Amino acid sequence: MIDDRDRLAATPAHDVALSCIEAGIEASTPKAVLREALSVEGGVLTVAGSEYDLGAYDSVVVLGGGKAADVVTRELERHLEDYIDRGLVVSTKPVATDTVETVAGSHPIPDTDSLDGARRVFQRAQGLGEGTLVLAPITGGGSALLALPAGDITLVDLQATTEELVESGASIEEINAVRKHCSAIKGGGLARAAAPATVVGLLFSDVVGDDPGVIASGPTAPDETTYEDALEILDRYDVDVPTVVREHLEAGAAGERAETPADPGVLGHVDNHVLADAWTTLAAARDAAAEAGYEPLVLSSRIRGEATEAALSGLAIAEECAATGTPVEPPAVLLSGGETTVTVMGNGDGGPNLEFALRVAVEQPEGIVCASVDTDGADGGTEVAGAIVDGETLSNPQRGRAALLENDALPALEESGAVIETGPTGTNVNDLRVFVIEA
Predict the structure, then answer these.
(1) Could you tell me whether strands 419-420 and 386-389 are parallel, antiparallel, or unpaired per DSSP bridges?
(2) Record's Pfam families (predicted)?
């Protein structure tokens, strides 16, 4: 899974960190997750304990989007064999499927392919009857990949808004609150288009708290946020958006546009199942650490905030562990999930996990190895998953500090031979961070 793994596993501690990452990602792949959460027996589909009689439907359709939606779809085809009639999903680098069409879109900034794919998904959802069962794989990245602007908003407007939001330091919940109110397909839009068909959301969560309304901006879920919330977020982070976007949101706040549905009863034809999340990876990583003879401790699955600040907090706990045996006696592994953010001030290449790792490396910790990755294999807008560092990674810590100021973590870590490359992993369940403390 990890390129050049033998070189990166320079010490036993490095090897354990990489093993934890591999175990966590593998456990959250659609193949592993659907093997546990989904089954078909006697014509009955069971998803996370809920049953759907396939014989009661005239057709089964797959509609969705996200970085891992194509791989989820491929696994659905394997489980449901001849039951699936047709479908369409949008992903970044689509894998081959038999029955369902998979098309490419762009992430993190939507492009014309994202627009075309979202429009086609939305159109195929319209006009379905009660006799249709819609299986909707929704995964992280769906907010950009399912780009269907509402009202007079254009793709260019949406691109500018997304770029400003991503660089503002706003949380994913806040970013998606704005995106939902600029979209026809998000904030329950896909589910409303598919009514009265039965819609079963198959969700892989890449957001803290696993709210279906936040995952991929909630195409199949109710939305508790409002147009007023969206405007307040733009003002709070001083986000400069195109005039048409602000006018659209202001019209909604004035009651001139329909709100996204907050009442779950409006989407009574929908069942949303979160099949994998940060805990999926953390549990597997914890087992891998224990198997290697280290005492594992999960700090939290909900780490958020600025990546560099979270890095210092995580390192402080690891250092306390090394110095006093609190909160766990070394040899130990500290694990965390969640999603940190970066307020972009410079013009470099990087992502939250790269900045997390570089901030740790700058401190040159003794006897501590840290690995931080995005489980989808692409941190921020880069093509690397993250990095693995220790106290000797940087020959010049001051250059590392300068790189952080320019948000240019990738070149600094590449130069040090510390980046972790996996390629697309086929899953997306947030970040995974590992601190290994030797005895």
Answers:
(1) antiparallel
(2) DUF4147, MOFRL
